[in-house]
Structure formats: structure tokens, C-alpha cells
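User: Can you help me understand a structure? I only have the sequence.
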Amino acid sequence: MIPRVDKKPPRIAVVHWHPDKAVAAVTRFLKRPAIDPSAEALARTVLAAIKQAGDPAVLRFINEFDGTALQAKQLRVSSGEIQAAREQVDREFRLAASEACRRIVRFAKQGMSKDWTMSSPKGGVLGEQFVPFDRVGAYIPGGAAPLASTALMTVALARTAGVPEIVACTPADKQGRCDPFLLYALDLAGATEIYRVGGIQAIGAMAYGTRSIKRVQKIVGPGGPYVTAAKKLVYGDVALDGVAGPSEIAILADASAMPDQVAADLLSQAEHGTGQEKVLLVTTSRQLAAAVAAELLRQAQPLSRQAAIYQVLRKGTLLVTVENLDHGMELINRFAPEHFELLVHQPRSWLRKVRCAGAIFVGPWTPECAGDYVAGPSHVLPTGGAAALFSGLTVNDFLRRMSVMAFTSADLKEAMPVIEAFGRVEGLDGHVRSGQLRFNR
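Assistant: Let's start by predicting it. Here is the structure, written out as C-alpha cells:
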């Protein structure tokens, strides 16, 4: 639901920052939590009920949170509904989805880890092998906006990795219908099961399993604060991709940047609809900052999600001036944004100075929307400062990595002094004996 807020245009302030001086507005902006505490409290209660009761709890929360009355047999989207979605989707979108999916798969194949081996010192073999998960779940937001692109950015990677069972969960409307464009994208990407379940209840169903929805081994995909909190709480029952909550964008710009482009790119993330999005401009140009502030208000007026955008402009927007780009890059790295645009002279020369970001968009011809829809890398990225700790979703998130060791007798004989030394220090004589007895024949 798009939040209802005061439609009066917000005031957008510009502050100056230096690495050696604390600025209250900047400090507050940087301290946004990756997980909302109030959302976590609710998620804990809902998950406990689902773990205990299964389908009845899932159905109760769907009705309570989404206003949709369903029976257990209606949770799974039928093949007939998927066929109907194929017929409803226009040709232009079908072509666009196919092109986006092709690019996503091509990028995934290029980056997918391959089995490899190397020789051990005495003729054996060492290496790694990669095997896909058996069953994964993808959460696809569909409340504030039916994110058909996220269906491709998650499910297509799982299919490329070779996962045989790919579950997708997405909320339905009050009549129990899922968006046809989203269903079409899920089918195109390779989902093997689709369920009309959203929010915390979707995470609980996939993590714990119910009579209608068999549990998965890993959950991926973005969501609002409640989904993000729920994912954190089920970690350990399932594997996770990371923290991917309300969207955020940061731009580092100098006087060469165009104010209208900067503002448009900031607004592209402010419009997502949770009201908790974050947008940050860091620039060496006071003139650019002032111009962007004016452009944000001008460009927000005709947008369809103006109410949600105004909430973000009031509470989640910061325009910062700095003395030089090095100071600006320091602030960007402290923020650790989900999306980071480099709109500076010779932007590629600054790439190596980026330490913390989910994805980097280089130069004026790479707006963030290109990454959201078509460039190739997944747009499922860490938020809330988690880019300092985690990376974005890739095809390798759907693979298990296993190290492989195949010693010869000569390898083990050479290694025994090392094994004996560690066994002695650690007091684990059984370790030592398991190696020694092979030579005591």
C-alpha cells in the first residue's frame, strides 16, 4: 500500500560535510537500521504461529494483512491461471521480458563458478565442485508494485544454476488474483511452483513448510521491512541471500553532472512505496546541489507515486556538499548504498575507490533503471548498510560449493608431520592416529 502523507511539497535541505567533523543530519542518515525492530517483533509472532499451525496460520495472516480470504487449495497458482496470464500480457511486454531474461541468463552463465582441480604435491588432486540446491524459494514483492523484473532477477538465476524445484511466492489482491505480468515473468524465468502468499507468511511457509507448501532450502529476494525482518529470523532453518529491504540510492557527482538527470535517478528509487527508501546525493558543487533540490520537487509533481515520493523526500533524502571527491567517496563508503551512481568526470577512474556498494553505475549513460530491468546483473542487492557486509544476488547463490581432496599415499606420508604437530598442540590424538594407522600394516 502506498502510504498516505501530506501532499504539501517538502523542504529539501543541503548540508556540508567533512570527514573530521560530525554533522548531525549526516550521522542520523547513516544510522538507518538494516532491520526495523518493530517489524522484527511482529515477524517473530507471525512466524511462531506458522511454524506451529502451518496452513491455517498462513491463511489467517493472508486475510488479516492483505484482506484476502483463501482456502488452502487456492494457495498454489494453477496452470490455467498461468496460461490466462500468457494470453493477457501484451506483445511489447513479452518481447521486453524475453530480452531482459536473455541478458540476465547470459550474465549469469559468464559469472557461474565452474568445477576446478589442481595437483597436490605428490600426485593427488585438490579442487572444488559446485552442485545446485534441490529446492529454493524466491520472494517477489507485489503489493506496492508488481515487480515482474524481480521474478527474472531471481528465478532465472536459479534455473541457470540448475535448481530443479523453484518456488515463487507473491501476494495476491483482495480478490485472490496475482498480477498477470508478474505471473508471466515467473513462468518465463522458470518457476516450477507459484503461490499467492506474500509478506511474513510467505517467508514462514517457505522456511518451515506447510501441508500445501513444501519447505525450501534457501530463500532469496527483496521485500519491505516485514519481509526483511522475517528472513533474518528464519536464518538457520533455511539459507538466505542477504538483507534486501527498502530501496536506496547514492550518487557522487561533480559539476559535470546534469541536475535533471541526478534528480530523476534519485526519484527512481524514492517511488518504490514503502516510505523507508533512502536517497543521497554527495557533490563537490553547491550549485548542483541547489539545482537538484529544485529538480526533485519539480519532477516529483507529475509522478503517479507522488505521495510516497514526498514521504521519502521529507524523511529519507539528504543532499550533501563536500570539499573534494575523495571526501565524497569516503561518505559514500560509510553509507554503503544498495545502488551507487558515479556521475563525475572520468568516472571509471574512481571505481577502485569504491569499497562498499551493492552495485555501481558508471557514467551518465548508466542510470540505475538500466540495472533494475535489463543490464544483466541481478537487482537483488543489500540495503540498510548491509553492502558493507554482503554482496548482491548472483547465480552462485544457488550453488553448493564443496571442496574435494584426493591424496595419494605419498601425499599423506608427506603431510603426517604437520598432522602430528597440530594433533599434539590441540590434544586430538585420535586425529593423528587416523593418519598413522594407514602406514602400520
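Now, to help you interpret it: The longest strand covers residues 125-132. The chain has a mean pLDDT of 95. Let me know which part you'd like to focus on.
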